[in-house]
Amino acid sequence: MKIKNFTLLLIMLIASVANGQSKKYAVHTIAFYNLENFYDTINDPNTRDDEWVYTKQYHDKKVSNIARVIAELGSGDNANSPTVMGLSEVENRGMLEVLVKDPQIAEKNYGIVHFDSPDRRGIDCAFIYQKNHFTPTSFTNIPLLIYEADTKGPKKEKKEKEEVTDDKNDFDEVTKRIYTRDQILMTGKLDGEEVSFIVNHWPSRRGGEKVSAPLREAAAALNKRIIDSLQRINPRAKVITMGDLNDGPFNKSIKEVLGAKGDVNDVEPLGLYNPAEKMLNKGIGTLAHRDAWDFFDQIIFTEPLLPKNNDFSTWKYWKAGVYNKSFMIQKTGQYRGYGLRNSKDEPGFSDHFPSYIYLIKEFK
Question: How far apart are CA 340 and CA 199, in angstroms?
Answer without folding.
Answer: 23
